[in-house]
Amino acid sequence: MLSEIFAVLGQTLSIYSFILIIRILLTWFPGIDWSNGILSALTSITDPYLNIFRGIIPPIGGFDISSLLAFLLLNVIQNLITNLQYASLGYG
Predict the structure, then answer these.
(1) Which of 43, 55, 58, 69 has its CA 20 to 30 A from that of 88?
(2) What is the DSSP letter of 63?
């Protein structure tokens, strides 16, 4: 039961990582209308998480590199959940 919870959490974080990648790639296109319904939903899902890191790392040379730290932390959490999932199965 516990391993299934960790599996769902891991899959959720994988989906969130994918959404985060899309959000960051779309920032490379300056003419995008962010008030579009889908894009607005995308920003409302990802910006609260990204804003945490934007407060820590200011843009350098006009580039927002805070997303690198955001991905790094998300990856660490995903690895931790995967390890917990295997440990709950008795493999660890």
Answers:
(1) 69
(2) B
**First and final C-alpha spacing in the chain:** 16
What is the C-alpha separation between 26 and 75, in angstroms, rounded? 21
Nearest CA to 23 out of 46, 52, 57 is that of 46
Number of H helices and number of E strands within the chain?
3, 0
Query: Is the separation of the CB atoms in 56 and 64 below 8 Å?
Result: no
Scan for tokens 């199965």, then name that residue: 89
| Domain membership of residue 3 as a residue range | 1-89
Token pair, residue 21, equals 């990648």
Q: Mean per-residue pLDDT for 52-67?
A: 83
| pLDDT digit string, tens, across residues 26-44 | 888 888 888 989 999 999 9
